[in-house]
């Protein structure tokens, strides 16, 4: 029996033991062990390092790898500083969160006693810092990170609840989301995050920091797609579709849908995800870290071409898909933008629409889309080229 056959047999036995029925074979419980990274392999003959990296998604991972603890330590604690000097500086400027964080990391690295004692000392320092800076996002994030090493899940969840009350921020809310252990709890926190992102309090904070529209849009899109993917991997595709439809569609009850807070480019990605889920029953895998099969932070939100295939055709009624594309083009076009700019933003939708018409054997309709596009934007060379090279 070949290694591939052995792997398939093993997977089959695991699914049988877990009573999983395909295609819903995802384990929602966290692992009790951590997988080890395989040793680096030699490149195959004729294969460049760049091709190898792209194949295994390493270029994506490099972009999203968070800084190590040592890097944070070097940032917060200048070389040559002693515990006494840092303690004195923090007491002189109690409102300076960075000084408290630096002192905590110094205790964590060079404090007295064993590792647990140093951890307690660092937590004590951060606790003192929070007394003077209850609304400091940086202090709360550091405190929660160290607190989670010592305490159980329930205690950490309670502490996260305090954090989002005193210093509500997207990063702290995401920390709270990451420690939830059930699908229902994660879904509930996602709804709370979206409510927070649309709250007047957050809007006022965003106004004080001009230029954060893209960041706000990204946060909403990331949370929305996380919640949708959560429903997909738990075998609830109908709910996943409903989540996206409620966010995208304008109705009498929701004259301003959730996606009205997105930038046009993010709105295009959201519509593409909805149509992809409708037709192919999944969300694009390139959105998330390829090394983690669970929902997580977005690592790539570039517009994409769906897997249209002439042999497969389309399974969703063509009229329904056309309606979705028309709604998407209307929703993603802005009256404040020129026709050529709207065309550039909506180009991924047009390209997928043309491909859909082609695999549906509606070549005349596909040509009609191209002609209307060229008529609306005759000077857009990039649009013409992109449509001709699909």
UniProtKB/TrEMBL annotation:
Q: Tell me which SUPFAM superfamilies the record gives.
A: TPR-like
Start-end of Basic and acidic residues biased regions: 36-46
Q: Which domain of life is it from?
A: Eukaryota
Protein's name according to its UniProt entry: Zinc finger C3H1 domain-containing protein-like
**Which chain positions lie within coiled-coil regions?**
none
Question: Quick one: which gene encodes this?
Answer: LOC109477312
InterPro entries, alphabetized: Red1 (IPR039278), TPR-like_helical_dom_sf (IPR011990)
Q: Which GO terms describe its cellular component?
A: exosome (RNase complex); nucleus
């Amino acid at each position: 029996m070949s290694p591939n056959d052995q792997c398939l047999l093993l997977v089959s036995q695991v699914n049988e033991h877990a009573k999983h029925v395909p295609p819903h074979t995802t384990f929602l419980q966290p692992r009790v062990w951590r997988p080890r990274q395989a040793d680096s392999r030699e490149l195959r003959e004729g294969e460049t390092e760049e091709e190898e990296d792209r194949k295994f998604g390493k270029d994506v991972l490099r972009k999203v790898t968070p800084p190590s603890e040592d890097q944070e330590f070097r940032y917060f604690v200048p070389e040559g500083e002693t515990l006494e000097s840092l303690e004195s500086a923090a007491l002189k400027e109690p409102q300076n969160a960075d000084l408290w964080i630096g002192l905590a990391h110094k205790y964590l690295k060079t404090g007295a006693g064993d590792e647990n004692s140093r951890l307690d000392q660092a937590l004590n320092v951060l606790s003192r810092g929070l007394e003077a800076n209850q609304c400091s996002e940086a202090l709360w994030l550091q405190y929660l990170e160290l607190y989670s090493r010592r305490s159980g899940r329930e205690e950490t969840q309670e502490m996260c609840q305090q954090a989002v009350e005193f210093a509500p921020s997207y990063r702290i809310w995401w920390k709270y989301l990451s420690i939830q252990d059930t699908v229902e709890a994660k879904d509930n926190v996602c709804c709370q995050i979206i409510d927070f992102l649309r709250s007047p309090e957050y809007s006022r904070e965003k106004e004080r920091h001009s230029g954060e529209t893209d960041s706000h849009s990204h946060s909403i899109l990331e949370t929305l797609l996380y919640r949708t993917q959560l429903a997909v991997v738990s075998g609830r595709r109908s709910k996943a579709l409903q989540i996206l439809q409620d966010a995208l569609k304008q109705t009498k009850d929701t004259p301003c849908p959730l996606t009205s807070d997105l930038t046009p480019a993010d709105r295009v990605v959201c519509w593409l995800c909805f149509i992809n889920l409708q037709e192919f029953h999944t969300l694009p895998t390139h959105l998330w870290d390829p090394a983690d099969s669970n929902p997580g932070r977005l690592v790539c939100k570039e517009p994409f071409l769906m897997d249209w295939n002439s042999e497969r055709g389309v399974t969703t009624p063509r009229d329904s898909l056309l309606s979705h594309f028309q709604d998407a083009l209307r929703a993603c076009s802005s009256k404040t933008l020129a026709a050529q700019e709207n065309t550039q933003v909506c180009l991924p939708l047009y390209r997928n629409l043309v491909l859909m018409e082609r695999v549906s054997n509606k070549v005349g309709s596909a040509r009609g889309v191209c002609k209307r596009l060229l008529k609306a934007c005759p000077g857009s060379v990039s649009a013409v080229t992109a449509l001709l090279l699909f």
